[in-house]
């Protein structure tokens, strides 16, 4: 264990380089500004720098002194590799900013490029590092796989007997927080930016516009009122308090005590790389001949609230909690057990429920942007995020797909539960250095939302997964009844562990980069859908009604598809002003109905919109933004909770469903991609001849014959119980369904279809009408005429190995992209992935795609791959029509029912 010699307050060792003298302290503020930034930490300094570079009249307000909140005591580590393409790009941008500041301003910004070394003690961790190594190649990030002896040459203190490999990234480094903030502000002021220290904000003013939405109008400060339409919340751990000034009751951001210690001099480590030993949640930052040692413990201390007047503040280090890092450090580097500690640092840091920052415009107050919640990684990400946020503010949307960081990823149901934020942030802190397995699930923050069928599905063996707070079935284990237990905090701080840990035990079968323990179970569900019929609970989908006098105008602007009022179900995109895809969804044009949930009463034309539940809040916010921007008289009603969806899909789906309805289901009576009202009986031949009305959509996400039944939640259990009695119908989960959809070639938003993808690049130009003024249409037209520099493609491997996405794509021996998503195609019986192929900035044509020889690199090994512009599974869509000739059947073999061959359908 490390020997404690003394503790000196690190604040005394920091040089502030006179920021206070160069800022406006205790002076009256300007009367107006384009943007007001609240908070003078590294996030605030970076966004002021980026906005001022773009000619924006921006003002930064700091209640005390610059960096006095949490920035001043940060370790300042900046890595290059993360298990996310977005994060790798943001880290690269941050490093570019830090490296360029000295040339721009003439002042050293504190950047030290000493490299970084990841340590692996286990096979699974080695596999994770191999995935990082592979993904880095797709972005030109240099890294090397090192044997323990080679790693020891870089960091002489390492004990080679305790680890099996290292991953070295020479572009990593550290940044001095105070120095970089000084230089950022110097550059910002040179471009017209203004900084006011000792200028607390007392309130954020807003008004309700004619549509009833909130808009920012100004900021009330200690030194005067600033009129503005845009405020950026860079309050860090105080971010929730700033949000409350604008009427936002809760921001999912929790302060924790986070600590590190500074060692005495160790000459051997001068110029050595920084170290991360993820398996024991440890990091070591090299600074000259000393090192900072810290990590993420399993029992961190949550802080209820931070006082307003806290500045340059540290807490006493809790050695009972922190000693685990001392022991880990000594196990990795035995010499550290004999080195004394010069100082300790324990300060507040803010953490979020998914360990990602909170960025972007708040959906509840237009003009209020958040830029906080950096989870002790503000130095790493804030410079790159500031570039995107500046684009967001100036041009309406960022250049990158920022959904993973966007405040809109959290639902109102989640944010209304205070304990959700606390327990989820706690688990995110604890799992910060845990291996990121593709199919892992969080234990905290569960059951924010579940549909009316939840208990029925659990009784039938559903193993749940969580998406956007919704519980949905991942797969089914027959005979099991597995409930997700209330979070027990891992037994930390004297919380008793759950007696029932069955769900946690099942998750252990997912802790692999190989095939899941439940691979065959998922395969059986997928085969059931392809060869017979499967029943999927799709109730977590977002479901909205768009109505009002300007509903048609709203649809024309927001939706790329041409809306036809002939019972069509239209697959459409929503684009941003840059032509990027903000959502994909289905839209039904409807008229006012009987007054039931699936047939509401309204005047004029309305639209029933269905989208992914994972991004439903994002979709809803985007639609409302269109209404706000164009001042339209339209209303969006969210009926997600009020309507359940059961999808019955597969070759036998028509035969099975026909037994429960007297409506025609043939291609003539009920064509593909249409919708209608349908009566479903409680059970065939039942003595209780009760029926339930629902809206049926003849669409599937599996690529098979099938229907979605949109049922009022009050009747969903009865309909589900009736269908479950059908012979030959198998319950299927989302793991099977996402595999089926990829095999068919359908897109999944936020992975293979994102806000930085143009529909032409994504092979979705067919969803965009030729004539119309939908948002982003000029970029679609330009891409159609001029061609694109990246193109969506499918890849299959003959080797039966798991792929999950983030694997590098090689064409003729050169990296041309990476897989956005990977899965196993059970019908094709081979791995399948999708990604965008590039051509060094040149156009990508079908000839270019077809003429290449392709390989996919998986954990450092390349495998031959076949490339397809469209999925090889049922490319002409015959199965959607019920044409299963190869199975000796088609949609006309079933016994005729009333009206089955009449387009008008049967008796309704």
UniProtKB/TrEMBL annotation:
<feature type="domain" description="GCVT N-terminal">
    <location>
        <begin position="453"/>
        <end position="770"/>
    </location>
</feature>
<dbReference type="InterPro" id="IPR013977">
    <property type="entry name" value="GcvT_C"/>
</dbReference>
<feature type="domain" description="FAD dependent oxidoreductase">
    <location>
        <begin position="34"/>
        <end position="392"/>
    </location>
</feature>
<feature type="domain" description="Aminomethyltransferase C-terminal">
    <location>
        <begin position="790"/>
        <end position="874"/>
    </location>
</feature>
<dbReference type="InterPro" id="IPR028896">
    <property type="entry name" value="GcvT/YgfZ/DmdA"/>
</dbReference>
<feature type="domain" description="FAD dependent oxidoreductase central">
    <location>
        <begin position="395"/>
        <end position="447"/>
    </location>
</feature>
<dbReference type="Pfam" id="PF08669">
    <property type="entry name" value="GCV_T_C"/>
</dbReference>
<dbReference type="Pfam" id="PF16350">
    <property type="entry name" value="FAO_M"/>
</dbReference>
<dbReference type="Pfam" id="PF01266">
    <property type="entry name" value="DAO"/>
</dbReference>
<dbReference type="GO" id="GO:0005739">
    <property type="term" value="C:mitochondrion"/>
</dbReference>
<dbReference type="InterPro" id="IPR006222">
    <property type="entry name" value="GCVT_N"/>
</dbReference>
<dbReference type="InterPro" id="IPR029043">
    <property type="entry name" value="GcvT/YgfZ_C"/>
</dbReference>
<dbReference type="InterPro" id="IPR006076">
    <property type="entry name" value="FAD-dep_OxRdtase"/>
</dbReference>
<dbReference type="InterPro" id="IPR027266">
    <property type="entry name" value="TrmE/GcvT-like"/>
</dbReference>
<comment type="similarity">
    <text>Belongs to the GcvT family.</text>
</comment>
<dbReference type="InterPro" id="IPR032503">
    <property type="entry name" value="FAO_M"/>
</dbReference>
<dbReference type="InterPro" id="IPR036188">
    <property type="entry name" value="FAD/NAD-bd_sf"/>
</dbReference>
<dbReference type="Pfam" id="PF01571">
    <property type="entry name" value="GCV_T"/>
</dbReference>
<protein>
    <recommendedName>
        <fullName>Sarcosine dehydrogenase, mitochondrial</fullName>
    </recommendedName>
</protein>
